[in-house]
Amino acid sequence: xxxxxxxxxxxxxxxxxxxxxxxxxxxxxxxxxxxxxxxxxxxxxxxxxxxxxxxxxxxxxxxxxxxxxxxxxxxxxxxxxxxxxxxxxxxxxxxxxxxxxxxxxxxxxxxxxxxxxxxxxxxxxxxxxxxxxxxxxxxxxxxxxxxxxxxxxxxxxxxxxxxxxxxxxxxxxxxxxxxxxxxxxxxxxxxxxxxxxxxxxxxxxxxxxxxxxxxxxxxxxxxxxxxxxxxxxxxxxxxxxxxxxxxxxxxxxxxxxxxxxxxxxxxxxxxxxxxxxxxxxxxxxxxxxxxxxxxxxxxxxxxxxxxxxxxxxxxxxxxxxxxxxxxxxxxxxxxxx
Length: 337
Description:
CATH class of the largest domain: Alpha Beta
Structural class: alpha/beta
Radius of gyration: 39 Å
Order of helices and strands: EHHHEEHEEHHHEHEEHEHEHEH
Number of domains: 2
């Protein structure tokens, strides 16, 4: 237990001591100056009853003075605000997970199923950082790597709602679809759509400090690998896979069953090159297996932030003060000759 304002005692206690000394000296100085002197009191002083009452008076007066001083001292302690101080150091897992989604219309159903499954996984994360990147013609970083899981779930809910709106034709649904389109169709008139390699590369470089930090990094990559770009991507899918491999990033790819066989084979080759795996998205166990694989990857704890928590603890001083004041009233009533 610590005192929030210890200077109250540093100042208060010396003043209290000085106050007591002054009172004692004044009382001693005025001992025979007040009241009236009476002659022939020896008989009364020798009376047993008088001696008993006088002794009682002196004891009670002394107790009264002691408890007065005690009350002042306890009041000073209370003003100094005793508090319980706890220092908690958070420990974070140095594992980063990016959800990288192709949001072209041909992959909407796969993305929708993946998001629903991954939300349950996010609820069970402890210390890992997770991010969300979506792409079509261009990439949009929806959530940078964070351990604010409530925010991640909020974004995934909005994204899920936006993707589901594609199957509706009303105006409100059209507005909802803009959430998943915003920032992903930049230059689509000249570049085409579903630029897979660029989407993967953009997600890779969304990991901070790739060369400086040694962390376990994973990308869950959802796409049909049907590149519809005009003139080809800036970064091919295989080149994106090589960048991931060079930076120690494992890619776990999901592809719809309706995708072409060549597209599936290329996506599988790239995922396995990085040390990850390839899955057919319609398999309900796919996400569970990916999560299991990610959890089996080595992770180490890194030092997080230190949080100092201070909780006021006035209960004991206040209780002692109340009891002392009660005793003072009782003693005061008993101080009689």
